[in-house]
Amino acid sequence: MTSNYQLNHLRELESESIFVLREVAAQFENPVLLFSGGKDSILMVHLAVKAFYPAKIPFTLLHVDTGHNFQETIDYRDRLVDHIGANLIVGSVQEAIDNGMVREETGYNATRNYLQTAVLLDSLEKGKYDAALGGGRRDEEKARAKERFFSHRDEFGQWDPKNQRPELWNLFNGRKQYGEHFRVFPISNWTELDVWQYLAVEEVELPSLYFAHERNVFRRDGMLLAESEYLPRRPEEKLEKMTVRCRTIGDITCTGVWKSEASTLEDIIAEVSIARQTERGGRADDKRSETAMEDRKKQGYF
Amino acid sequence: MVNSLAHTELLRFTTAGSVDDGKSTLIGRLLYDSKSIFEDQYEAISQTSAKRGEEGVNLALLTDGLKAEREQGITIDVAYRYFATPKRKFIIADTPGHIQYTRNMVTGASTANVALILVDARKGVVEQTRRHAFIASLLQIPHLIVCINKMDLVDFNEEAYNRIKDDFSAFSHRLDVKDVDFIPMSALLGDNVVDRSTNMDWYGGSTLLYALENVHIGSDNNFIDCRLPVQTVIRPYSDEYHDYRGYAGRIAGGVFKKGDEVVVLPSGFSSRIAKIDSYDGELEEAFPPMSVTLLLEDDIDISRGDMIVRPNNQPDVTQDVEVMLCWFNERPLQPRGKYAIMHTTQEARCIIKDVRYRLDINTLHRDEENKEIKMNDICRVLLRTTAPLLTDPYRKNRITGSIILVDEQTNETVAAGMII
Predict the structure, then answer these.
(1) How many CB atoms neighbour CB B191 within 10 A?
(2) Cross-strand bridge partners of residue B182
(3) What does the pLDDT look like over A199-217, one tens digit per residue?
(4) Across the interface, do B235 and A170 touch by the CB < 8 Å criterion?
(5) Interface contact flag, B38 A277, Cβ < 8 Å
């Protein structure tokens, strides 16, 4: 009898994530969902819609906007927010630069990626959010492999990897002092391939950037980067027209693109299944040092 | 392609072991031979191996974690790793094995279907092996695989394998473990991990990966005792769904069907299931570990922490709970201390009324004299709660039979418990 009662891995991951999302709604007063426009945050929104159907999602969406975006990301974001009737808040890095809260990096490798942390923490504080839902996955990067579903942050928004709460069964301890908050990662146990397979099964609409398209690109440090007014090129960095797609979508200055002919989700799944590089292999922000992610996380980055 | 993936099952396993018995090498080998390692990861560990002056590529480095851990050359926390074959997706809870890290082992074991226990073929069953086996039985991991590693260092000798198998069995008879498998291997050379060894023709069993792909996990969940702890009540407040009241939660046991008679605890009111709802449409039945929304025929006051069950099969409703406790915190257990207690979706406060005994996890001796409970100790206690809990014995149900204790000042999780 029991053999009929077995969920496949995608349904089991879905169920686990929905459980976590519902725990957040039940345990916190003012949760926010961090939305970057990337596939992982799109998955999160999709799961949240399912978790609270037929009610609207009980989370505000927060987009920390570096101002250096692919236009497709912003268009997609606005359509999605409109479609699900959610409330969107934008934390602007440009504004933080203008009012002197943060200072912009200069030079060819300048990126606003690091400035996001300050703007994120500022937005969380201003909105008095007590839980921030993120699309981080444990398979992404070695510092994430030890992250909890419910990750406690002190009043400075810092992560202390040596002092994390043990997490057992499905008992999630979201208790905190006033002024502290939690980062919650409902899709911790998904891999890149799981995400793509699920988005395909669920027929979720995705930004066009994820599919193969023609674009002007140039090479830097073994990566392909997209031509953009925000990305000054060195004299030797020549533009080439190529058929490419994004495997992750972040700030345009540090998101690498990949040569690819994958124009459907099926193609992408086939490509990811045989990929020989991790998806973050195209992220300049991780390449700064061996512990780049761990160091950023300690300061409050996602 | 997508359709063929629809049949992939998820299996969670835990590995426990120390640096010396080759645990990291074994995991590295599983990931490498199942082609789950990416070029940039492999390149990074090749460089590190070379930098450290090691011969060849050290696969153990794949599981290297945080900076602090790398500096000290030890693992201090549970790390989760992922790989997949066409048959199953695997989640590894990789835990350190030293006695100091009992709490990490317990954490990793809490959700596992299978425990891998590593034994060094040269050393045989040692204290640590017994400790791992005990924790696996305490946490009721349904399947154990004893990996008898480093067979290359005992000339792939069958006698060595048999001796360890007999020693382990003699010990595990005293524990509550049902399904144990023994596999001789060499993680370093790859024998019997993913590929069958050509050095041990005397061994007729399966490789580790084959065992992981084929162990029967279909009955690991409880499909008998219907339990739905209510997480949250869904009320859309829209014109279209004006009177909609959905009780959302993850099925913790049994199979719920539309039309079933149910009882809501602790109030005791009964009703019938009007609908099992989901975003994808109405469902005929719901079973663990599905997350669903139940609608009942009658209007009953139900809130988070309540449990929906069947009238002829109910959990215990009690304020006195006997538990086996694993202590996690640097501050020792306070006899007669008060803590917050979390159980399913319910929260209450409790007092530790009595410490029955402290268990020596190496000898299984019950110490009723020295009952001071420090970090990583395991003990049996009696708790008295401020509100009734809806419990099952942990042996029957790992979800409705487990609790955690939280320090009310620091909010840290200080202990995990299994209800007896």
Answers:
(1) 24
(2) B146
(3) 999 999 999 889 999 999 9
(4) no
(5) yes
